[in-house]
Structures
1.
Amino acid sequence: MKTIVVAVVGNPNSGKSTLINAMCGTNLKVGNWPGVTVEKKTAILRLNNLIVHLVDLPGIYSLNPCTQEEEIARDFLVKEKPDLIINVVDSTNFERNLYLTIQLLELGIPVIMALNVYDEAKKKELEFNIDKLENWLGIRVIPTVATKKDGIKEVIGAINEMGLNSTSPKKLTYRDDVEKAVKIVEDALKVANYPIFQKYPVRWVTLKLLEGDKFVMKTMGLKGDEPFLKDAKSIFNKFEGHDEIHSMFAEIRYKIANKIAKEILRNRGRQGRDLTERIDRVVLNRFLALPVFLVSMWFVFKLAFDFSTPISDWIEFVISGFILKWATYILELLHSPNWLISLTTDGVIQGVGAVIVFIPPISVMMFMITLLEGSGYLARVAFVMDKLMHSIGLHGKSFIPMLLGFGCNVPSIYATRILETERDKKLTAFLVPLMSCGARLPVYVIFINTFFQSHGATVLWSLYMLGIFMAIVLGFVLKKTLYKGSVPFFVMELPPYRVPVLRDLVFQTWQKLKHFVVKAGTYILAMSVIMWFLLNTPYGIEKHNSILGKTGRTLSPVFEPLGFGTWEASASLVAGLIAKEVIISTMVQIYGLDGPVEKRNGNSKLSQDLVEVGVSFVIALKDAFLNLISLFKVKALSTEEDEKENPLMGRLRDAFTPLSAYSFLVFVLFYWPCVIVGIAMKNEFGSFKIYGQLMLVHSLVAWLMAVLVYQGGKILGF
Amino acid sequence: MKLSDLKVGEKAKIVSIHGKGITKRRLMDMGIVSGEILIVEKVAPLGDPVDIVVKGYHLSLRKLETEEIEVEVLS
């Protein structure tokens, strides 16, 4: 059976993903291109007598690499030489899409054009002469509506046909002078018999040499001042006013695109405003844009967190209540030793729980992000916020991960994927942990209730503001140091609004979730077990003699200038690496305030407990939907557990002064982001390097700020 | 006249694109080529970037980039 490789290429927003999903369904494998965070989808299609390896290339506007995506696409096309290209074209934006098609044809690889979003083009009364277009380009052109799976069968049929007996596309003839220059170069190259021709298509190499493409020149060991290149370039009179010859080529290609479009496309529609423009008149209106934007962001945030929190809480309730209880019960029935019970319950089950509670926020958030991206609103967010974000060296789109960071930093790291350059992704990821996440809130709340009851809101507000302020400062510093170099261009399409297909949204969300559970799950589980050992070895020993206690004691001098140089504080901070709310649960354990294991064994029966689990799930769902429709959170975190006097509060009052408590909170706000953020970063950026840098920089910032607060406060007489 | 000097609603023909390197290349790839007609559609609420229509689609550019584009106002 014959096997062929088919590359799917097209502009961003051309509906490429939808087309691929429609063709392959659940067959798709999603991963990354080696070394970068650009998504790579592959699938294998089995047709009659043909096996098709389908590779999705990143959405690109051109084959002159200006971005990482374009470089990946170019490299794949020229180095891997697929047998066939499916070029997905947005028929409502034909001319600009055709500019890419023209470059694809230069490669000499057979092309099938999927003239996508054909229904919208029809609605706009755009009339294509498909036969004429096929003749012009010498390729198959198939109208498709990927969202409705229209034309998909035809595309697959064409792949089958062309895969079995492919024909090279017809050469698209350029202007006379270009063809003359091409001839000079081609002849010279043929004489010199460059080995590159065995690898790369002749016409493409020739055109790239004329354009001065550095990649091709380097591959061939040419400098660009060779006589035949000089001769060829001298044909063009001063590059028609351009400093660089490739600018002239861009114009030449666009002229061809324009000519073809004029001949095969008739616009019978009125030139009135379309739906997108009418929406944008409101959404991007000078005065309305910001309010509309704030409301929609508030809604995204609310949906992502307020909706998922009750469900996460329920999962936590089931794990730390029902599952812990019955696991203990079973282990006791089996006469397991105490240490094993403790390891299983406090280490393994809590660890698994730590992964599972992230499932609701991550899935809702990924869903929302895909929705924002697919609908076209993400580009508007970037448009509205760019000025602000640009001032700290970021892109307008960075606003989304930063905003989501206030809920949880972990999905924020995944959300950096919406950014276009590796630099933007990394810089944003670097600043995200400064957005005070929900896990830090329980720490703030218990300290505020202990020390600052009368100024609670002000203290809380000051911490959030301090985080934002530091993001601006650090953004500014990083822009000048670690991430210097030119801020990338902001030349961004504002795509038409479209209703995303549900199956794409679900697929995307599912992919991310699977990735998180499988990859993060193992690490987090391992971390929890390690932490258990740190706190409990040797088993049964006093907490301050455990490894964690000893570590705390060794570290405590570091925190002396910050006002909390006790082993208990240091040990809790170390444990906070797992998640910042663990600081509190560790303090509870260290201060010996948690009940002994027996407490978990109530007298209730399994059936009663099961009923309780079910009932609480219904309540959680109800809460989730109530949160969604209510303006303010129904179930606020602070009212839940803190009205009653928590036994921990008394211990804290002995160990901290109000000043050292605030210094501690400042430290908690800034110091190393939790290991789950680190794992998300490894998933996204391929290594723990950025997380390492982040831990160092953020912990240093935390230490300095807390010293400043404590020592400054002492001088001021607090 | 530069593209950055245009007011919202004004129509202009692109005369030339200054600058070099990646930004210029990207602009041209997006259809900012000499002879092309563009309209300034709107300005972002914070004053930057702008939204222009070129080749029948919407493109947003920062002031930094619109300053590089020489145009000729059409009435």
2.
Amino acid sequence: MTDEVAQKPNPTPPIMAKTLFDKIWDAHVVSSIAGGQDVFYIDRHLIHEVTSPQAFDELEARGLPLFRRTQMVATADHNVPTRNQHLPIEDELSRSQVDKLTENCEKFDVELYGLGHQRQGIVHVIGPELGLTQPGMTIVCGDSHTSTHGAFGAIAFGIGTSQVAQVMASQCLLLSRPRRMRITIDGQLRPGVTAKDLILYIIAQLGTGGATGYFVEYAGAAVRGLSMEGRMTVCNMSIEMGARGGLIAPDQTTFAYLQGRPYAPQGERWQQALAYWQTLYSDADAEFDAEVRYDAADIQPMITYGTNPGMGIALSTPIPLAVAESEAVGFSKALQYMGFAPGESLLGKEISHVFIGSCTNSRIEDLRTVAAYVRGRQKAPHVEAIIVPGSKAVEQQARAEGLDKVLAEAGFELREPGCSACLAMNEDKIPAGAYCVSTSNRNFEGRQGPGARTLLASPLVAAITAVEGRLVDVAALLETTFVTESEGQLVDAAASF
Amino acid sequence: MEKFEVLRSSAVPLPVENVDTDQIIPARFLKATSREGFGENLFRDWRYQPDGQPKVDFVLNNPRYAGQILLAGKNFGCGSSREHAAWALYDAGFRVVISSYFADIFRGNALNNGLLPLQVSDEVLQRLFAEVEQEPHTGFIIDVAAQQLFVPVWEKNIPFDLDPYKKECLLHGYDDIDFLVNQKEAIEAYEQQRVWAF
């Protein structure tokens, strides 16, 4: 390595060498204005009930039409109940917001996968399922976890409601180009270490603001080895280290997932698309503003102990004794909120709630992982364990595979799709003071309900915790029990829709 | 959007790092379909007990402090993209947030609503906290055109960065939407020449 660098004569990269991110960005610049902002074109605009009503109002107040209504798709997810979705929503404010979405979509003629639709679900779950999310696209939504769609090699990011209105009115945004960071994970993940552990590990290394100002490309053998579901989990949490988004170069895994989906190109157009998609990778000499490398073998099953997603540790290791001075106020405030002490081990902590769901981990692969572990087992009597599928399609698939019965026998309640207890806008709230191991993406104070204490983890760690009723050394447990049971669980559910 | 040229105000200190948008405005208060009224739930769970009584130790309930400037720890506004966070701060009377850095989406949302995210170095931020905690009535002058934060007790101007386009928007009260709608022809021309359209 050293020799190679030393001998390289004047390493001037080819002029055209570009990162994947820059290839897609450059293809979407309508024009550049003084001061460095670009008029940036958006291919796909996803909307939901919480961040769109004020944007529709603004459009109406200004007397503007939707510029490209066919590039918009809507769903109701944040507020919806996860029981009895066939009945009217009981909460008056939630109902009025969902009704407002329906009304706006009718008025402006926007395609809506609303409550009761057989393809309804969390916006970041149904986009990929429907084939709306494709490589090389630019995708926005008034939701920070829009970064999920980057798993397909798209530039996808969350926007505010003023920007939702801008895209409605012009299909464009005014943006300055973020810096680029590449995070490479070499090697292969250990058995039982999942995509969720991988991203929690990265965020713990970089911190909750460590990638602010950057757009991240995830690369390396461990990332290549992930299924589309796993890649979505990784890209989903990019925002939790401050990154504007994250993306992964598309490959055969991506193409196989997409082929045949309702919005995916068909026939000759599929071939054309494929030819283009195969050009979407970072050139060998492309330069990044920051590069980070980790070894997959160093990653263990993870958990968070604090009140931001950067406060993560391997489950088998104790909470740090201290952190850098610049983080000290937040660290002690977080531990006080969580009821933990510096240097304390989490092993043995009793857990009363387990939530499996959210745009991070509610896909069929996640439900299969949980079912594979809990088959023939029982949740601990004191634990309330709910599983909220990401979409009606995931729910139906789970039922078709008989997972609903496995889960029910183990004492887990399979609900109807929505964002649910990830942000507790509906009635799925964790009680004040209770500990919840959650497969979602944020452990902020009160995120799952006022006073709720959230510990973020993978679906597998969540399933094991529900059965044990307390936090256990998952890595040690897995060595003895899980490896043989989990065979075959990573089969892609994609083709079966 | 209202014009923002010069602000003279004291500041309210919130020396906590990584303040996320769930603290600024919890999700359960996002059910309104208009932009108004979010200020009363600003920092709801830090500011009030579950029964609605003010928490005396929270800075917004401390009569020592007042003003249109919020002084906050680094990485302010991380988390969700909810623009309601910017609306809530603005509705509660804030016009500037000073921090040593801001989460990207919050920064954009703030600027789109005439709320200035003013970034200073860690060192300056710590000195500002010390100054305000010692002398809560300390006044500051923020001049957008000059891109300067004037601290009278230090007799010093601290320059801050601001995107030239966003600066014009603040000074004139322009929204991006006005600009973008006027780009219609260029956008349509772009759509026509795309190599690969989905």
3.
Amino acid sequence: MKKSKETIKYAFKASIPIMAGYIVLGMGFGVLMESKGYGWWWSLLMSLTVYAGSMQYVAIDLLAGGATLISAALMTLLVNIRHIFYGITMLEGYKDTGAKKPYLICALTDETFSLVCSPNLPKGVERKAYYLFVSLFNHFYWVAGSVLGGIIGNVFTFNTAGVDFAMTALFVVIFVEQWESTKQHIPALTGVLCSLVMLLIFGPSDFLIPAMITITAALLLERKILEGGASE
Amino acid sequence: MIDGMHSFLLIAVVSLVTMGIRFLPFVVFRKKTPKWILYMGKVLPFAIMGMLVVYTLKNVTPLKGNHGIPELLGVLFVVLLHKWKHNTLLSIVGGTILYMLLIQVVF
């Protein structure tokens, strides 16, 4: 029992930075939904069942614009296809997680991924339980934020322009932490370079898929160098 | 006026596609995972975080408007603050406040 308490505590601590981001971004989502006439229960439904930050923002436009179901499906595919990478990364980690596994997979967002992809867990923290609690905490923050946003959305307004920079800041922080955790910077540089080049070629709305393809290809080409160094 | 039924179906579609994508790798590589996929699992997190940083900054226009100066300053500030204090929450909140001030007050 002591062990599980320690695990919950550790998972909560790890999730605090996400709490800030998720409650702010979740509230932003709830406020926007409210402004389009979708009350907090719509935000609750979507945050529970979709649980994908940037896609939910896109979905507000789809809802408000009365998009067809097919175009909604295609849009979701484009925006969320990057999640395939998270699954591939977590194949090993989420193996043998038993009954937790379906939920862990459902809750594998960008932010949750950032906490489970390379955890340096101290002794006394149970890995699989850590995955579960981090996922649950994050999901809760996101739902709570969006419901709160939906409720207070029409009560008061403040100038929130730029608040979405929290997302950028979060990814930059994780990038810095990952950078400091290893001497091998080729994968990180590959990600940045391929994305930048594809952004220049294809523009902001179409670069994500070319970026993912070139990143995959480049990493596979670099396999000899990278694995040679890693296996010592 | 909200079309409740259409909205409900649309949310269901978005949810199903999202969950389908999340489950896909686990279903495809259920039995045995090829070695190169395991290798990708090791190196991808680093590359993806780089991609996500670029992704969140994709609408920056270096040649127009404010030339992406708020974004550049914001990112630099986050990096320096984080290198200095290594406090994730502080770096995110600090960077976001600076950015909001920059675009609301300065630019």
4.
Amino acid sequence: MRRQRAIASENVRLRLIRKIDDFSAKNLVKCAVYASSIIFFFTLILIPPIAGILENIGKLKTIYYDPSLLTSANLAIINSFTMAFTVATLDLIAALPLAWFIVRSKMKIVNFIDVLVDIPFLIPTAALGYSSLLFWSSQDGISRIFGMETLIPPGFALVLLLHFAFSYPVIVRVMVGELLTYREVYEVAARTLGAQPFTAVRTITLPLLKPGIIVSFLLAFARSLSETGATVIAAGNFENGPVFIFKNIDKVGEGALVYVSSVLILASTIIFFLIKLLAPSLKFPIKRAFPSIERKLSSYEVVKFRDGATILVFLIIVVAPSLFIALPVLSALLDGTVNEMVAGSELWNVFWRSMLISYAVGSISTLMNVVFGLPAAVLIARRKLGRATSIFKALVSIPIIVPSIALGVSLKFFWGKYGFIPEFWVIVFSHTTITYTYFVESMSAAIEGIPVEMEDVAGTLGAKPFTIFRRITLPLTKYAVFSGAILVFTRALGETGAAKAVVRTKEFQTLPVLLVDWIINKRATSSQSALGIGLYIISAFLVLLALRFIIRERRR
Amino acid sequence: MEDKEYLCIIGPSGCGKTTLIKCIAGIIKPDEGEIYIDDRIVNDTPIQDRGIGYVFQEIALFPHMSVYDNICYGPFVKGLDISSAKNLINEILNMLELWDRVKDPPSILSGGAQQKTAVARALTSGSRLLILDEPLGSLDAKVRRVLRYELRRLVKDLGLTAIHVTHDQEEAMSIADRIVVMRSGEIVEIGTPLELYLRPKNLFTAHFVGEANFFIGDLLGEEDEGVKIDVNGNILYIPCKPSFEGKKVVLAIRPEFIIMKKTNGLKDAWRGMIEKITFLGSSLRFEVCTENDIMVIVKNPFSSEALGWRVGDRVNLVLSRDSLLLYPYPKEGLEKAISIE
């Protein structure tokens, strides 16, 4: 009886698949799926921020009535780009040797270093900002070693160190990937021709790795430009674009916000595309060789010194400030703050509510991006839009380029018009917008990696589109789907700028916004802040661990 | 190796040919042993200071440089004045007829032109020792045939010493002064192409270089200047005395040294029937099964007589005594001894 029932249900399943298969083979259905993803992109991702700014562009002139505000706004914008450029350049100089060390060194310590690189990725940036603040600026941090009250006070230098730390892994990860796929035979060929190792790297390897170097530079640049929560914590009197908006969002008129946001959006888009366009034609200095100097630079002692210095910089400027938060969290666990949290108070009730909102927002925006981003990724990877594919791809990359708080301001204006949309959904939409690119770009890269012939072969064997997707494309990209989803989820969970910009009532504050508010407005004691940050990190870590476990199981 | 010698290394895939030359070039550090170049141990000398021109199997032309820049790379990184190296560069460009491609990026060159550029690049570095790792492996058969003679001519004209790794025996035979046969990480035999073909000292060489028939036999005893051997009931006389102990032996003979006739009553002939005929272009290959169940490969040059044979024809095989090679039966068995796995 049970067997018959199982057979019957299997028959129903197969009939359903066949029906969906037949349905998916219809051109109209295919068009509808792709059209819905394009409509989703334009209506929810691209048009809202552009329309939000354009509709309010008239308010821009009001800032000219306040020259001092205009001066500080301009300074903040310049600071944003100066900081991003400086950070990306310094990161490139410091992180490239570490990527090199990870790929080329045969030392056992490599595996350990490789794991440590991901730490700034795992810690939400707001938490990283607080950790850096405590490490560099508090009496309990590194200042104690130097017998000083504050080694590096909040301000430009601290923001620089902070941005350096969280952008560093981006460059290491991209460059490790590039170096792993790089054909080392070119470098060996150069050496057989008499080139010193340094010369071979300078004249052959680095020019060939140029695309990867440009991509990693741009990612570090964008990450620094966009970061808000941690920057606000570490900024002191220093102001860049995101800090200016964050601090003034409830204080100044909309004109200043429109001004800073529109300039940031426009300038970052232009700079991003200019770098992308012009950087490939940049030439490395390979027209001259300096055999005796380069022989010295290739010597065992110099290489050991370089590796040592690279690891030292990594440990002191990236790892130590990131992990330093563990100490105050530990002390908060021991000084009775935990009991106070367990007993419950208004402060902790707000904390738990914010955590719930953050996870709900992260989950829903991830789901939306997976459902509507997947067809868009297929459109890009398989160039289904013909020549327009490149334009579509460029448009998709915009949300990653633009500082998220600037995007948040324009979204605030756009969704503000539709008062009937609940605030929670406005927050979800804004998080969907800022994370969309991460999913679509990672997915399209994964689909591009599957030879189109595999899908064609399945087609020639009689498989219909739905079956091809279900049996060929999806199994081969399942890991990428989960990885992309994790990327979107963690990004949404850690987002401060856009969340701060769109939130109207305190009830809907996300966790990073709440924690930044606790720290900079001193609404909580340092123990409470540390515990809050600790719980934030632990919960994020546990969710990540669970997701990774699911991926691993599925992979098996 | 002798100075100005053209040495080819052959052997089955994975036998260690490339590993050996990479050790010589300094790309791989050997676990043990010493490498001498010009009577000097170079084990600790880095790649760039060994003075070896290396042509890679993957060609590995620098994609971001023009053909000319690729060729000038050696003198450039050594800090030499390009104008002083110009004579050599021009000479090599002339010899390899690359003048009209100097401004091109490597990606638009044909396989042959890319390989010529790689050779030119290795030569302009001023090295006296040239190592070529399957340099013609990725080229069409025709281009390969032309280029291999060009390579030898170039090496000889410039008075260089060359080590050339290939899996193509014909290529090795046609250009090498001497050939090294390798198997499972060891050198099995070294000799001139003729020595290795006509009088291989090793069973594996006899099998690997060219084609050979192998018969297991028993020594029956000495007779005059030679020995009598029983191969599955067929008695063979070999005009040489074995230099080894033991009664069980292996006989080897190249297919082209077996005469195939219709005429009956020939002395010491093996009777059999043709089972398969393969057309090889300049010759025909026959698989003949003898009356006592021995499979014999015979190769006849292309001729009207050879074309006259048909599958199923009864034939008489005469094995040329002088071409028969005698080996002791290997301890590991014949199959294992000649296996290329």
